[in-house]
Amino acid sequence: MIRRLLPAAAALALAAPASDAAQTVSPTPAGIQWYATLVSGIREAKRTGRPILLLSAAPHCAGVPGIW
Amino acid sequence: MDRSFLSRPEVIAASRNFVCIRLLSYENKQEAEYLKRICRTGSGELENTVAAVLTPDARQMLTYGRRGTRELFGDAAGMAAFMNQTAKKYTATATPADLPEVATVRLALDVAASDNQPLVVAYGADEAAVKTLRQQLEKAAWGQSFIGRFVYASTNAAKDLAPTGGGNPGVLVIQPDKFGQKGTLLASAPAGASQAEIEAALKKGIAAFKPDDKSFGNHVRAGHQQGQFWETLLPVTDPMEAAARERGRQMRRNP
Q1: Which of A3, A21, B22, B230 fits a disulfide with A65 by CB distance 3.0 to 4.6 angstroms?
Q2: Beta carbons of B140 and B195 less than 8 angstroms apart
Q3: How far apart are CA B157 and CA B52, in angstroms?
């Protein structure tokens, strides 16, 4: 189902191994690459023609930073 | 936020055909107003988390706006399947190119700690120097070696780097502490470094990074005991989170 947004409202890997992976130890796997601002993300989506996965979250819990 | 979905390989793979935007709740007024329109809550206020899928021009929603990915998709397999089906309907006209920066170094350090990833800062003496470093990082950020491995920020203000011990202008790869309030330098490339030197610094940072083995309960408990508290730009309007924050404040006042 598609809901239209007001135009004004729109204003605001699998992790493939690196080609030289043998030379680099990766302690953590590659994750989703996030745009962190609405303006930059929407700009890139329009430019690239890619759909948008939009999330919001707070990088703190019960006031304690460092955890979503 | 339901991290279990977002760390699944099938979801990560599907994300490569999307522009993935993760906004920081309560840190930007315009973004907060936008999120309230995306996901209408019982309280009428922005609550901690929002999830939705939109068209590339952001004018139409392809899902309802909900509080999280579990409400939208049920499970990770469902999320990946929906994303893959959706991506087929759009022809990508270009590959991502812009550096996906967090708005400030302060926020980025917290995000990096939360993501358990290194932070990369483009630190220049002035905005022109920052722009040059940013362009060099953009060439690296979306390649297979580095995509999804860093949180990024930029600055031309030395004071922004005080929590990380400062540094010389250039590309700085930083290990955040567990609360994202301090950091230590893992690797760097000076201003004027070649693309190869910058990428070597990024690889060195990845190799040197030590992920924090944190559990939710222990982390919050330790944070309260140590007086760690994050001040948001906007009031926290999620009722449950606001109550939890107040309990945290009480613990700080009465250890």
Answers
A1: B230
A2: yes
A3: 35
| Mutant choice from A24, A42, A67, A68 vs B, greatest count of B C-beta within 10 A | A67
B182, B146 in Cβ contact below 8 A?
Answer: no
User: What CA–CA distance (Å, rounded) separates B99 from B152?
Assistant: 7
Q: B-contacting residues of A 21-60, CB under 8 Å?
A: 23-38, 40-60
* Contact between B181 and A66 using a beta-carbon 8 Å cutoff: yes
CB contact under 8 A, B56 and A31: no
Instruction: Report CB contact under 8 Å: A15, B148.
Output: yes
Give the distance from residue B158's alpha carbon to the nearest chain A alpha carbon, in angstroms. 22
Instruction: Indicate yes or no: CB of A49 within 8 angstroms of CB of B241.
Output: no
Amino acid at B215: S
> What's the pLDDT tens digit per position in A22-38?
444 456 789 999 999 99
Taking each helix axis from N to C end, the angle separating B127-141 and B195-208, rounded to the nearest 10 degrees, works out to: 70
What is the token pair recorded at B153? 């920020």
- What lies within 8 Å, CB to CB, of B208 at 6+ separation is B173, B175, B186, B187
Per-residue DSSP letters for A4-59?
A: EPPGGGGT----PPPTTGGG---SS-----EE-SHHHHHHHHHHHT--EEEEEE-S
Q: For residues B195 and A10, what is the distance between their CA atoms, to the nearest angstrom?
A: 35
Low-confidence ranges of chain B (pLDDT < 70): 1-3, 255
ipTM: 0.94
